[in-house]
Amino acid sequence: MMKICMVGTGYVGLVTGACFADMGNEVWCVDVDEVKITNLKAAILPIYEPGLKELVERNLKEGRLRFTTEIKLGIEDALLCFITVGTPPCEDGSADLSYIFSAAQAIGQCMNHYLIVVTKSTVPVGTTEKVRDIIRQELKVSAREHVGFDVVSNPEFLKEGAAVEDFMRPDRVVIGTENIGTAELMKQLYKPFVRNQNPILIMDTKSAEMTKYAANVMLAARISFMNEIAQLCDIVGGDITNIRTGIAADHRIGRQFLYAGAGYGGSCFPKDVKELINLGYKNGLEMAIATAVHEVNERQKHYLVDMIRKRFGEKLDGMRFGVWGLAFKPQTDDMREAPSLVIVQSLINMGAKIVAFDPQAIKEAQQVFEDYADHIQYVGDMMEAVNDADALILITDWRQFRQPDFSDMKSRMRQLVLFDGRNQYDFEQIEKYGFEYYCIGRNYRGK
Ligand code: UDX
């Protein structure tokens, strides 16, 4: 059992804190947001994540997980202190590290015993060393230089929608430290989580920091590559779903993250790709691949809109579009950088009215589309979204959209036009009910 403090109770901090607690550790989760902390004490979560609520409830009840706004209280008895605050993108694409640095300052100001400070947020190469400098400086200012500490980089690899599962059964754990003792302690902490001989990898802090960027940008590159091939198929022929299975069978390539679609979104891929480009730029190196990954994705988010424009023209006044799925991917209510932002806004700007359904993200969507409120209607049932619609647009691949009642849809829609941004349907199904069907990279020209 270890005593742990999480500084920053956002997505990563909350999942990590709850999972550590569930493994028997004593965890304090700290945040400056008083409302968030008051809610969490009553097990009211700020985000939706499968399995997380149960985990928080159980560990709160059993006293291993506690919440506070006071960092001093959080680190009083702790041996490990994780920095899990946000690193949002700045205007120029670089990561905003101000929350990281103020967390480091706050830790340095109230730490009075040996502490291992771990950066878990995704941070550019060199940040963990900066955290060390800040803490050292704070200790010096207050003449507490005798208080020892160490810093570690320990990037997270959680996927939203499967974060608890990913944390409980990680493919690997990356630990960046140059200190053998610290490495040993971190290994002890993570040992109960790694099974199936998945490794705990010890490396220097900079490699650990870079590993996170390299992993995310490579995954994003796979998606952009497939999206590019998909657009080419729509012109020259070929079906991207066949090509995907064809290349996935090569073990060197593998099966995952090869789905063409409406483009990637979320809080990580877009941000990390931009930060890597920025890091190169600041250091005089053009990151040509990362730049292309970003550009292809921006283009992809407009691909469905371009198809709609081609079919219905520039002016969509008086037309009604049903939308299925707003979140950046299934199993989350997160709208950050979601392709739906570009698609919905473009259609409204062309004069359309949107009737949208999402199983989890409606509340979030209402906030981000606040300025468009007069043009969007939200409905609580997927079938309601297609009533009187001139077309249905599927943007997020929630499982419940997989096998809709096509004959019911047929009786509700004004025109039977379906734009499928995630290649969810078979041509036979669609043709049986007489839908006009548009999808991504399958070179479908209808019957
Ligand atoms: C990602 C990484 O997977 C995770 O390891 C890292 O720690 C954080 O960033 P996340 O942002 O939660 O996780 O979502 P992910 O499941 O990776 O999906 C990202 C985006 O890519 C989504 O918009 C998704 O729809 C899209 N995607 C994914 C595709 O378009 N095609 C695919 O084949 C896979």
UniProtKB/TrEMBL annotation:
InterPro entries xrefs: 6-PGluconate_DH-like_C_sf, NAD(P)-bd_dom_sf, UDP-Glc/GDP-Man, UDP-Glc/GDP-Man_DH_C, UDP-Glc/GDP-Man_DH_C_sf, UDP-Glc/GDP-Man_DH_dimer, UDP-Glc/GDP-Man_DH_N, UDPglc_DH_bac
Protein's name in the database: UDP-glucose 6-dehydrogenase
Pathway: Nucleotide-sugar biosynthesis; UDP-alpha-D-glucuronate biosynthesis; UDP-alpha-D-glucuronate from UDP-alpha-D-glucose: step 1/1
Alphabetical keyword list: NAD, Oxidoreductase
Enzyme class, broadest EC rank: oxidoreductase
Any Pfam family: UDPG_MGDP_dh_N
UniProt KW NAD keyword: yes
Family to which the UniProt record says this protein belongs: Belongs to the UDP-glucose/GDP-mannose dehydrogenase family.
Domain of life: Bacteria
Domain UDP-glucose/GDP-mannose dehydrogenase C-terminal: residue ranges: 322-427
Organism classification: Bacteria, Bacillati, Bacillota, Negativicutes, Selenomonadales
Catalyzed chemical reaction(s): UDP-alpha-D-glucose + 2 NAD(+) + H2O = UDP-alpha-D-glucuronate + 2 NADH + 3 H(+)
Ranges in a coiled coil: none
Record-listed E.C. numbers: 1.1.1.22
